[in-house]
Amino acid sequence: MSSEPLYLQIKQFIDDNITSGRWPHGHRITTEVELANQFSVSRMTVNKAIRDLVNDGKLTRKPRAGTFVNLNQHKPESPLLDIRNISEEVLERGKIYSNKVIAQSSLKADDVIATKLGIMQGSPVYFSKIVHFEDETPIQLEVRWVNAHIVPDYINQDFTQFTPHQYLSNNCPLSAIEHTVEAIIGDEEINDALELSEGNACLLLKRRTWSNNALVSSALLYHPGNNYKLSSKIMID
After folding, report:
1. What is the pLDDT of residues 99-127, one digit of tens each?
2. H or E segment and range at residue 85
3. Between the CA of residue 236 and those of 81, 83, 180, 215, 233, what are the distances in Å?
4. Distance between terminal CA atoms of the chain?
5. How far apart are CA 187 and CA 214, in angstroms?
6. How far is residue 128's CA from residue 106's CA, in Å, rounded to a whole number?
7. What 3-state class would DSSP assign to 23?
8. Are 218 and 84 in contact (CB under 8 A)?
9. pTM for this entry
């Protein structure tokens, strides 16, 4: 009998099924209850094994649907020190890009939004919330506020045809960016948008952009922490 902890034995069992092709990409794996009965252990032990494989990017959990072999064994990646159109990134990886516009509206800046955009409270602001997909898997939830005085036609755009980044780049040439990154635990809204289970980590990229020294946009970009990475490359003379 193996001397390894039981959760590692279960993890190896699942990994072997994936590696062998018995459980192909997209396959819904055996449930936690069935695995617990098979190995005569608690669901907590099975959950630890599955959680490790989710963190390794080999499995993905979909609320109310189950746990699946990840379709993207290689994590999608975006540059950290640059701004690129996410649709182009997906297409360059040989994948299919799509998005879903959740919200697009006009509002008056409260104190929080006014601070984000460096404007007076009560100023007109445009708001958009969009989920970006790679091969039907959500890879980014984009929540964005735009200075309506600088980009007056933002609210009228059809962002199912092009991304906010593409539109802003064409109409407000970038002069400066500000990035901060942190790991967070997503709330229910974020988890639903990114199809994450409760307790999974997210990568949150906070981005502000300027054009001709005017602050144009402030965005929160949420990525599934188990299946996405941000990278940077710095040239040193």
Report:
1. 999 999 999 999 999 999 999 999 999 99
2. none
3. 15, 20, 22, 29, 10
4. 57
5. 32
6. 9
7. coil
8. no
9. 0.67
Q: pLDDT tens digits for 128-144?
A: 999 999 888 899 999 99
Closest CA to 54 of 35, 70, 31, 78: 70
Map tokens 């902890």 to a residue: 5
- Residue 226: partners with Cβ closer than 8 Å, 6 or more residues away: 54, 55, 56, 57, 60, 200, 201
Determine the residue type at 36.
A
Two tokens at 9? 């034995």
Residue listed under structure tokens 């993890």: 11
125's CB contacts (< 8 A; 6+ apart) are: 106, 107, 108, 109, 113, 117, 119, 145, 146, 147, 148
3-class DSSP assignment, residue 191: helix
Summarised one tens digit per residue, pLDDT across range 160-182 is 999 999 999 999 988 998 888 88
Q: Match 């098979």 to its residue by tokens.
A: 38
Note whether 154 and 167 are within 8 A (CB).
yes
